[in-house]
Amino acid sequence: MADLTPGIISRTTGTDLVKRGLADMLKGGVIMDVVDAAQAKIAEDAGAVAVMALERVPSDIRRDGGVARMSDPEMIQGIQEVVSIPVMAKARIGHIAEAQILQALQVDYIDESEVLTPADEAHHIDKWAFDVPFVCGATNLGEALRRISEGACMIRSKGEAGTGNVVEAVRHLRSILGDIRKITTADQAELFDWAKRLQAPLPLVQEIAETGTLPVPMFCAGGIATPADASLVMQLGAQAVFVGSGIFKSSDPTLMAKAIVEATANYLDPDILAKVSRGLGDAMPGLEIGTLETKLSERGW
Amino acid sequence: MALPRIGVLALQGAVDLHVHALERLGVETIEVRRAEDLARVDGLVLPGGESSTISKLLVINELFEPLAERLNEGMPAFGTCAGMIMLASEILDGRDDQLSFGAIDISVRRNAFGRQIDSFETDLSVIGLPESPVHAVFIRAPVVERVGPEVEILAAVEEGRPVACRQGNVLVTSFHPELSPDLRLHELFIKGMAG
């Protein structure tokens, strides 16, 4: 096939469009936390759009305590070898070197994550410096816009990871999307005040006023444990869901994983939700937020 | 002539971007999740997303058979990235259980350019769009490795690998026209529906 259409002028990698574009392709899907190749295979078999490789799921990090770090590269590569869907991995907040290692491993997305123990108490990673895109957590719109100004290409509401309790995810989604709705009705003078109150760059606030959405895709994480939870956060405006402990801490991960995939795709259809919610066994045991010693969502600045 | 009503397969992926593109062209658009949605459309866009996930959801939502039937009857279709994989007659490097419709006689290799770090933007000459090159965004993109005798190659990357093809009223691209403001490929699809 030699004389085909003449082609290329130049080819550029690592652009904003390319980095945000992968997040666009994950919309409507489920990204599952996995700790080894066997779990990654179960996730892909169930229809996950991507997997998040990490050493311990958040509920175990919560239980075990200690410092939670980036995963062993060998484990990440083991997962890359067995699945054909995108593989993401987590770096500690502000840990530039962990992020560099993850980029060298060619993970498809880096999660600068509050689930791991922060490495820097004042600064996040300068994400513009990387060709691999980053996702970051946020509890409110100001935090989301600060992360975007640092180069994040996808935002996920943080929720409270490892609790199986969706209440914090709902709070964060409502806060972020509620403020976006308010900004779309603000006048020019009020936008300055919004930028000041959110501690966020004015141009991003002005962009939201114009478009009515975040400039990057907005997913939901933290506490999703059932198909109904996935439908709830999608109905509130999340564009995809991350499920951490909710799958592999349930009594039948294969069944739960498939059910959450189906529920996320059909989040507006109560008949399908009723069908897929049936006979799933036990969801992961949940935790009341008031009883937590550590709130992971408070990490991030 | 009344503009056609175009569906966007809305099981997973960049559905919203295709809907916006079609709406900007003034086309009535329907998100297709169930067989009854499919019955209302004159043509279908299969968006970018995760092809292995969409394949499973097509079966779960009992949409695979009805869609295969419509495509067999000659319904026009436009597939981008994952959508191209699903319309192809053969998938290379797919999952063993991954289905495709065989609506266009091509063999497509999944993730042919590598991982996300190798995703890229470029300007492509596209046959039928002579005014200027198309700015094309490739994300973990597939490539066409074999074309049947009925297939017209509309664009290729430098190694001579096809990245846009057409057979009758079925149009496919490895890249994502829905990520760029240039609507000419969507227009090409709609024009092809009439002819």
Explain the overall architecture.
The complex is a heterodimer of chains A (301) and B (195). Chain A is 42% helix and 13% strand. With 301 residues, chain A is α/β, with parallel strands linked by helices. In chain A, strand 6 (134-138), helix 6 (141-149) and strand 7 form a beta-alpha-beta unit. The radius of gyration of chain A is 19 Å and the shape is globular. Chain B is of the alpha/beta class. Helices cover 26% and strands 35% of the residues of chain B. In chain B, the strands form 3 sheets. In chain B, strands 2-1-3-4-12-11-10 form a 7-stranded mixed sheet. Chain B has a 3-stranded mixed sheet with strand order 5-6-9. The longest helix of chain B has 11 residues, at 184-194. The two termini of chain B are 12 Å apart. The mean pLDDT of chain B is 95. Classes of the chains: A alpha/beta (301), B alpha/beta (195). Chains A and B meet through strand 1, helix 1 and helix 12 of A and helix 1, helix 3, strand 7, strand 8 and strand 10 of B.
Strands of the widest sheet of chain B, in order across it, are: 2-1-3-4-12-11-10
Quick one: how many beta strands of chain B?
12
Report strand % of chain B: 25-35%
Strand content range of chain A = 5-15%
**Tally of alpha and pi helices of chain B:** 6
Number of contiguous helices of chain A: 13
Task: Write the topology of this structure.
The complex is a heterodimer of chains A (301) and B (195).
Chain A: E1 11-13, H1 16-25, E2 30-34, H2 37-46, E3 50-53, H3 58-64, H4 73-82, E4 87-92, H5 96-104, E5 109-113, E6 134-138, H6 141-149, E7 154-157, H7 167-183, H8 188-198, H9 202-211, E8 218-220, H10 227-235, E9 241-243, H11 245-248, H12 253-265, H13 270-277
Chain B: E1 5-9, H1 15-24, E2 28-32, H2 35-38, E3 43-46, H3 51-60, H4 64-72, E4 77-80, H5 82-87, E5 88-92, E6 104-109, E7 120-126, E8 129-138, E9 143-147, E10 152-157, E11 161-167, E12 170-173, H6 184-194
